[in-house]
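Re: How this chain folds, sequence and tokenised backbone to follow
Notation: Tokens come from a learned vocabulary of local backbone shapes, not from coordinates.
Start of record: The labelled sequence and token lines come straight after this line.
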Amino acid sequence: MAMTQKNDFSTGPVWKRIVAQAIPLTIAQVVHLLYNVVDRIYLGHMGGDSMALTGVGLTFPMVTLIMAFTALFGIGGVPLFSIERGAGNEEKAGRILGNSFALLLGSSLILMAVGYWGMKPILFAFGASEESFVYARDYLNIYLLGTVFSMLSTGLNGYINAQGFPKVGMYSIIIGAVCNIILDPVFIFALEMGVAGAALATVISQAASAAWILYFLTGKQALIPLRRKNIAIRREITGEICKMGTVNFIMQGTNCLVQVACNTTLQAYGGDLYVGIMTVTNAVREIFSLPVSGIGSGAQPVIGFNYGAKQYARVKSGIRFNTVVGVAYTMLAWVAMLLFPRFWFGIFSDDPTIIEPGIAALQIYFFGFVFQAFQFAGQTAFQALRDAKHAIFFSLLRKAVIVFPLTLLLPRLGFGVLGVFMAEPVSNVVGGLACYITMRKTVYKKIEEAITNGESPLTSS
């Protein structure tokens, strides 16, 4: 009874419930980022040569594509799981979890096979040169072996958090990240494996995380455990998961599209040097985006649970809190970037040929960073309340409609290589505001009307 009350998001102050979820989730995401960031830090200081960093950067579209399918089949089921748990339908929630596991396992094996089969043409299509291809190939040859571990650990961890165990979810990530931090210097430097060592450390670390997550979800402590009888691909549940997961899939998929466009355009206008700069820029962006993303991840199960429990005033409060905290943080982060760009770039590279042009690119890329908070707040509300149509549209708007064409167009309009870095701030302003304003005019307005009239809001239109 005490455990059930502890994991009931419909009681206690909403902001405390969100913070209680968000803090360990943010820590977990920070630690999870270390999988790739630590690799980039070590490789960026590997003898002052930025080519290893460039090679690993070329693998990001393929890694992002794997994460897109993880989001489709794993993360896509978490809002459905939260709503069913909030409504007291634990049997269906268990089937959602089992269905998600089956989809993740099957798709990971297919993606691994496709990755090995088409590696060379894919990497050259992603902007590789003959020199950088060697580093990218060495990394992927080992990284792809861990596709199953990567997809299961990332895709299933949300089901731990959705049951009210954010600390356990945090430990899932910490276990893997600590392994990665320890193994990276051993494999990269001590055993002189270079980029292959970075990939091997990542695979071992992801395997450790996956083992911990499966141990918890199949154990007695889980409120809704993963049971063998529920591990099956059911047409109806798969359709629901894919409908919600399409939002995250498009977000990750369009990220892959943009990364390819950036790498190929940068290769044409600036060569391997600027592909390496974009690798560092993406790493810095990931670091700065984590806290606001963590708040959104903490808010989503709380908002979804209260929507399922028909606690609409708490839903409204959760959306407001998510917005205010996100805007405040991104404003401070933007100032920190403007004041100390050399520090942030220098974390990832000590190559003097890359630092000066990299600082200029970094400052352009982060202009208007505060508007990204509105995108996160709007998308969190749409996903938590099952408004897949709007969530999908605004995922496409920001990356596919704004960033992708501008990445190709601006360099050709005379902005040169810096035009690639200008596309991101434009998308933050236009896409972020459009997403948030629409959210306020649709699902948020319906929640307010439901509170006033005592009716159930319709969020699917």
User: Anything to note?
Assistant: The chain has one domain: 2-451. Confidence is low (pLDDT under 50) at residues 1-6.
